[in-house]
Amino acid sequence: MNLEVPNKFKGVLKTAYTAAEVLLRPISRKYDVGEHTYPKELDILAAALSGANNASGGAIGGATSSREKEIPGAKKVLKNGGNMANCLNIQGISYGDVGLLLSFPGQGLGNAAIAAVSNDEQLKKFGKMWAAMAITEPNVGSDSAAITTTARKEGNNYILNGEKIFVTSGERADCVVVWATLDKGIGRAAIKSFIVLRSNLGMKLERVEKKLGIRASDTAAFVLTDCVVPGTDLLGNPEIDVKKGFGGVMETFDNTRPFVAAMALGCMQAAIERTREILSEKINLKDHKTPINKLKAAQAQFYRMEADYEAARLLVLRAAWMADNKVPNSMEASICKAKAGRVGVEITLKCVELCSSLGYSYKELLEKWGRDSKILDIFEGTQQIQQLIIARRMLGKGSSELK
Amino acid sequence: MAVNLASLVGSAKNKDLAKKFTAFNNFLDSNIGKTLGLRKGLVNTLYYGAYGGTKVAGMVSSVMSGGGAKADPARLAPKTPSDFFDLNYTEEQTMVQEALKQYALKMREAAEKVDEKFEIPDNLWQEYYALELAYYQVPESLGGMMKEKSTVTNMMMVETLSHGDLGMTLALYTSNSVLNALVKWGSDAQQKSLVPKFLEPKPTKASIALNEPSALFSPYELATTAEKSGSGYTINGLKNMVPLSSIADYFLVIANTKDNGPQAFIVDKNAAGLTITTDRGMGLNSAQLGQLKLDNVKVEASALLGEGSGFNYEEYINYSKLGWCALAVGCAQAVLDYVIPYANDRFAFGEPISHRQAVAFIIADIKIEMDSMRILTQRAASRAEQGLPFAKETYLAHIMCSDKSMMIGSNGVQLLGGHGYIRDFPVQRWYRDLRAVSIAINGVHI
Question: What was the pLDDT predicted at A73?
Answer without folding.
Answer: 56
